[in-house]
């Protein structure tokens, strides 16, 4: 930083901060597409230095259960985007599950309206969301889906609606989630600060709420510096979800500190 | 091809016309849907009452996923408005939600006039007077309310000057 920095009280530093943030986002955007291509684990190993034994070891561990990985842009929305893409990709070949998902997401709009979300803007997101979902009705293709998810405008609309679903799930079942929220804040405040704004990173509570709101079991492989193996956590939607309590996960994600990518099982 | 941002701004405009909130108005500029002009009328029972404050709202293609940049063009004296007219309001920064539309933005700014937040001051003098010397605060606000009525004339003069300089070149 400039050694001669002096605070100018009449200057709006928020705008500077936001401009800086935009510059960082632009740099990331240029190096990683929103939804990347399928990669082998050998490509992933390349990201780690030879001497980084812990991570290299864990990649070997992943190889025993997964065949490939698909990278997602790290823009704070990666959990939602990864979830959305991976699940719609799955629906391409599962017409029955597709119908279930359409049904549940169609109905979700009225639930959100009942919780007090503004109708005008909610409908806008819901319309685009349903349009994107309908793309995976047979005979949809992965290529087309990938194109849609790499269109920033459409892709972000999809992410927004998933965020609203999470917000609705949390606010609609406030009592169940209140104790999992850190800091002195209400569920509504938490949603306003950590769920609805774009770019806010996702934690367990977001994953649990999304899995429940759309009835889709999710599994996440946590890959960090502890232990020798990745740590698999399953987020089950509970009753009423796809396959009930002991459901097989519908999609697998890889978590490395601060980031989610998509995993494809063997 | 129309982008989601432009499509949404058309919808925002339509909604603002069909269901206008009281005390605010806004419309895209003549040839650019990404740049809007807006007016906020000073809310009743506040020192800003009777003022007509002009603002610009600048959108990017990332709207509504990112907030627009909103600025007062009319001179403002308020704890949360910077000297350049930009506004310190959480929903326009880190608490932005894509469910806000132009109507929600303008009514939020209107209620900020009503209810300043002296804990995050953008104008230290205004924040201090608001806390410690409400009478002086109201006097300063009354002055910019008066000025807000003259805005039209000012712009007219500027236009004339521009015309003259064009004629001269």
UniProtKB/TrEMBL annotation, chain A:
This is Ubiquitin thioesterase. Keywords: Hydrolase, Protease, Thiol protease, Ubl conjugation pathway. Residues 67-266 form the OTU domain. PANTHER family: UBIQUITIN THIOESTERASE OTUBAIN-LIKE, UBIQUITIN THIOLESTERASE PROTEIN OTUB. Pfam families: Peptidase_C65. The gene is LOC101856440. SUPFAM superfamilies: Cysteine proteinases. Its EC number is 3.4.19.12. It catalyses: Thiol-dependent hydrolysis of ester, thioester, amide, peptide and isopeptide bonds formed by the C-terminal Gly of ubiquitin (a 76-residue protein attached to proteins as an intracellular targeting signal). Belongs to the peptidase C65 family. Gene3D superfamilies: Peptidase C65 Otubain, subdomain 1 (3.30.200.60), Peptidase C65 Otubain, subdomain 2 (1.20.1300.20). The keyword Cell cycle does not apply.
From TrEMBL, chain B:
SMART domains: UBCc. Pfam families: UQ_con. The active site is at 88 (glycyl thioester intermediate). Residues 144-169 are annotated as: Disordered. Residues 4-150 form the UBC core domain. Residues 149-169 have a biased composition (Acidic residues). Keywords: ATP-binding, Nucleotide-binding, Transferase, Ubl conjugation pathway. The keyword Nucleotide-binding applies. PROSITE patterns: UBC_1, UBC_2. Belongs to the ubiquitin-conjugating enzyme family. This is Ubiquitin-conjugating enzyme E2 A isoform X1. It comes from Aplysia californica. The gene is LOC101852335.
């Amino acid at each position: 930083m400039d050694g001669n920095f002096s605070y100018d009280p009449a200057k709006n530093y928020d705008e500077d901060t936001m401009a800086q943030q935009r510059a960082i986002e632009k740099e990331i955007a240029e190096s990683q597409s929103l939804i990347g291509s399928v990669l082998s684990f050998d490509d992933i190993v390349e990201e780690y230095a030879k001497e980084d034994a812990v991570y290299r070891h864990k990649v070997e561990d992943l190889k025993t259960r997964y065949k490939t990985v698909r990278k997602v842009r790290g823009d704070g929305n990666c959990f939602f985007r990864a979830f959305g893409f991976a699940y719609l990709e799955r629906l391409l070949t599962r017409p029955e599950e597709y119908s279930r998902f359409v049904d549940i997401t169609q109905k979700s709009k009225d639930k959100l309206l009942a919780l007090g979300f503004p109708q005008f803007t909610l409908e806008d997101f819901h319309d685009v969301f349903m349009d994107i979902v309908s793309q995976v009705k047979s005979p949809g293709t992965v290529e087309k889906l990938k194109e849609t998810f790499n269109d920033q405008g459409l892709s972000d609309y999809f992410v927004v609606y998933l965020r609203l679903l999470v917000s609705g799930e949390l606010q609609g079942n406030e009592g169940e989630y209140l104790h999992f929220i850190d800091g002195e804040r209400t569920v509504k405040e938490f949603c306003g600060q950590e769920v609805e704004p774009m770019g806010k990173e996702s934690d367990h509570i977001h994953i649990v709420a999304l899995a429940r709101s759309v009835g889709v079991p999710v599994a996440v492989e946590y890959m960090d510096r502890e232990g020798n193996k990745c740590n698999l956590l399953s987020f089950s939607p509970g009753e009423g979800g796809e396959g009930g309590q002991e459901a097989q996960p519908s999609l697998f994600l890889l978590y490395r500190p601060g980031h989610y990518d998509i995993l494809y099982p063997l | 091809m129309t982008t989601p941002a432009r499509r949404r701004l058309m919808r925002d405009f339509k909604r603002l016309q069909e269901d206008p909130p009281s005390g605010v108005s806004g419309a895209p500029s003549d040839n650019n849907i990404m740049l809007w002009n807006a007016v906020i009328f000073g809310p009743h029972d506040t020192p800003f009452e009777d003022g007509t404050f002009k603002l610009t709202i600048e959108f990017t293609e990332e709207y509504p996923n990112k907030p627009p940049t909103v600025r007062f063009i009319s001179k403002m004296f308020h704890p949360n408005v910077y000297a350049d007219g930009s506004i310190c309001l959480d929903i326009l920064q880190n608490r932005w939600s894509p469910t806000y539309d132009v109507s929600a933005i303008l009514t939020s700014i209107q209620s900020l006039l009503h209810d300043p937040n002296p804990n995050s001051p953008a104008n230290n003098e205004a924040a201090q007077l608001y806390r410690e010397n409400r009478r002086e605060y109201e006097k300063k606000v009354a002055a910019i309310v008066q000025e807000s009525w003259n805005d039209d004339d000012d712009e007219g003069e500027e236009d004339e000057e521009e015309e003259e300089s064009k004629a001269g070149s």
